[in-house]
Design a protein that fits this description.
about 325 residues; Rossmann fold; Glutamyl-tRNA Synthetase, domain 2; Helicase, Ruva Protein, domain 3; two-stranded parallel ribbon; 4 strands; about 5% strand
């Protein structure tokens, strides 16, 4: 065995005169798979170690038909990284079908990269590889004898890295069906995808990420409410609101918004987190997100002022 080395079976434990064709005429797996692999000229069979017991039966069929058998390699099964148990179809915490990831808008290259490293490693510390690099690096001697852990967080990290570095047109094409279905394919759609591209792990996330631009102002979390209770918050918000109101339509562009925030700093003497965080929370309803000037510009002057007014009323 390519992975496990020499494996021996007692002849009496293989299954006797086992069935190769059922009464209804259908061949059984252990017979059919040999015919299929031979017809497809399969040279290497690499599969889960739950198939080890099938291998001697299949070797008997190859021998009986006078065919050369392929090389077999049996890898350990994939386990759930959180539970430590074998991954099964009943494990609803993990999406296990390629189609599920396609539907969610994961980049195929990311899924390919992730799956290639389950039960095999190329050596070294790097984990991001192109398809061509993985094919060039592949060495069956590095197939693992230890169980491979399916780590959803690692897949998401890897997918995010691929999306961040992918061509914009490719990412926008993935996001477009989700935006269209949500009724958000507006003239600002491309700019919104560009804004949130660095945060996404899958294209479907573009809808919840852009809720701010299409729905009512979100309810603040306890942490956000606590921060907004600071004594300098109203001063910052009133000063920044005045700056927005004084800007003309022509002046209201991304490049002019940051200077307005700095002007509030100069005017009030408030800086750092106490300056930027109240504005971010008041405008977007979140403590973290894309670049603040981009968010304010895409939200629009009127909506930004409206959100600040809502927060000031609450305070």
């Amino acid at each position: 065995d390519i992975v496990k080395g020499d494996i021996e079976f007692e002849g009496g434990n293989i299954g006797g005169d086992w069935v190769i064709q059922k009464k209804d005429g259908y061949p059984t797996y252990n017979f059919a798979v040999v015919i299929d692999d031979h017809d497809m000229q399969i040279s290497h069979v690499i599969r889960g170690d739950d198939h080890i017991a099938n291998t001697p039966k299949q070797l008997m069929v190859y021998e009986a038909l006078g065919w050369e058998a392929p090389e077999f390699g049996h890898m350990t099964l994939i386990i759930n990284s959180e539970t430590g148990k074998k991954l099964s179809k009943r494990d609803t915490n993990t999406l296990q079908f390629i189609e599920d990831y396609r539907k969610k808008g994961y980049l195929p290259e990311a899924v390919f990269n992730f799956i290639a490293l389950l039960g095999w490693n190329p050596g070294g510390e790097d984990e991001i590889f192109s398809r061509e690099e993985l094919i060039k690096l592949f060495d069956e001697n590095r197939l693992s004898k230890s169980p491979a852990a399916f780590d959803q967080k690692k897949l998401d990290w890897m997918s995010n890295d691929y999306i961040k570095n992918a061509d914009f047109d490719k990412v926008f094409a993935l996001c477009k069906p989700f935006l269209e279905k949500a009724g958000r394919l507006t003239d600002k759609a491309e700019k919104l995808v560009e804004l949130y591209k660095p945060q996404m792990t899958a294209a479907e996330e573009i809808v919840p990420l852009t809720d701010l631009f299409f729905e009512d102002f979100p309810e603040l979390t306890e942490a956000e409410k606590e921060f907004m209770a600071g004594e300098t918050v109203p001063t910052v918000l009133k000063a920044f609101k005045a700056k927005l109101e004084a800007m003309s339509d022509d002046e209201f562009i991304t490049e002019n918004i940051f200077p307005q925030i700095k002007a509030v700093q100069k005017e009030t003497g408030i800086k750092g987190k106490n300056l930027f965080m109240p504005i971010r929370i008041a405008v977007s309803g979140e403590m973290h997100g894309p670049e603040l000037p981009d968010t304010i510009f895409l939200l629009g002057r009127e909506k930004s002022i409206k959100h600040i007014n809502q927060v000031l009323e609450t305070l």
